[in-house]
Structures are given as C-alpha cells and as structure tokens.
Amino acid sequence: TRGVDPTTLPDGLRGKSFDDETAALIKQELMGQVKAYFGSAQGSTNALKEKLSQQECDRFLDLIGECQAEGTLGKVSAGDIYRLASSNLSLLALQDRAAAEITFGEHGVRHLVGHNIMVCEKLSDQMQAQGVPVSAKDRLILHQAMLVHDMGYAVDNCRGDMAKNGIKTQDSGHPLLAGRYLRERLQNDGD
After folding, report:
1. What angle do CA 128, 131, 135 make, to 5 degrees?
2. How far apart are alpha carbons 40 and 33 in whole angstroms?
3. At what angle do helices 136-148 and 118-129 cross, to 10 degrees?
4. What is the DSSP string of 111-154?
5. Distance between CA 7 and CA 191 in Å, rounded?
6. Could you tell me which of 137, 156, 145 has the C-alpha nearest to residue 185?
7. Confidence (pTM)
8. What pLDDT, in 10s, does the model give residues 88-129?
C-alpha cells in the first residue's frame, strides 16, 4: 500500500458534490499518492511512471467534469469520485509492481497509460475528426477499461504460474480474471 489508503476520505470532501473545487482538492490529494507509489524510496522512483500516473489522474478527473458538462453524468459525490480515482491509482501501482516482479513484458504504467490509454485518446480524436461523435463518457469508459483490463496478470496464482511456466500459460486466463474483478466491483454497492 506504500502508506496509501484509498478508502479514507479527506475531510475537505465530506458531504460535498464533485465540481471544479472538489476536483482540485482530489487532484492535490492524488498527487501525494502518486508520489508515494512512483516517486519515493518506499515505492518506485521512476520519473516517467510518476508523470504518466499523475497525467492519468488529472485526465480521469477532467473527463468526469466533462461528463457532467455534457449531461452524461449527473450530480455525484466528491467522495465517490475520490475513492474511484484513488482505487484506480492503487490498481495501477499494483499492476506496475506485478509487471516488475515477473518478467512478462511491460504491463504496468507505461503499457496501461503510456500506450493503451494514449492510443484510445488518439483513436477518439481521429474518430471525432472524421465526424464520429465521441463523448467524454466514451473516453472515460475507455480509460476505466484500460486501467483494469490486465488486472489478471497481477493475481497471485497467475504471477506464480507465469514465474514457473512462462507467459503463454496465462495469456488466455488473465482477461477472465480482470473481468471477474470488475464484475465483483460493480456488484458491490459500497464500491
């Protein structure tokens, strides 16, 4: 956890709705978490991963604000948005750590944010340039999908099997585990 608790809500967000003011508070709070995960001796000291992680946190929150502005997301609790963004950052750190522990190619921050999410954004831009409507909500969904799609690689049994038998043994199983993770989160009313 590197001292980060994504479930503890900062006092300045209690009882407030998500808006520009609370978005700024959330970004500030997440900046400290990014430092703990990717800019400290307790975590990683990789400047690129720190930069990409901070960019993703900021963009994710900006997209939520854009969803509200376009009317695809109504009034939402600042606490709920904080918990989601903080949890996403924890998942990113977990996947990055798993990628570093088991040699199975880059499936951490550089892959998830520096490639997959960047490609999603570029494709969305190209579609819009061709007259295809792409909403902020569409982009937000793409971000969330890319953040969780490789979660299966971070699961202990996959990591152990890959260490023993190599990547080929988990290529077909990791997306199923990622899907199960997401399904269970969606079914949990408290999440």
Report:
1. 45
2. 10
3. 150
4. HIIIIIIHHHHHHHHHHHHTT----HHHHHHHHHHHHHTTGGGG
5. 10
6. 145
7. 0.84
8. 998 888 888 877 776 656 678 888 888 999 999 999 999 999
CB proximity list for 47: less than 8 A, separation 6 or greater: 39
CA–CA gap between residue 166 and residue 164 (Å, rounded) = 6
Q: To which residue do tokens 């978490």 refer? A: 33
Strand partners, 17: 77
Q: What is the largest CA-CA distance in the chain?
A: 50
Spatial distance between the Cα atoms of 180 and 165, rounded to a whole number of angstroms = 23
Say if CB 120 and CB 138 are below 8 A apart: no
Centre a 10 Å sphere on the Cβ of residue 57 and count the other Cβ atoms it contains.
Answer: 23
CA angle 162, 165, 166 (to 5 degrees): 55
Tokens representing 126?
């190209």
pLDDT at 1 over 80: no
Residue 183 CB neighbours (<10 A): 10
Say how far apart CA 188 and CA 109 lie, in whole Å: 26
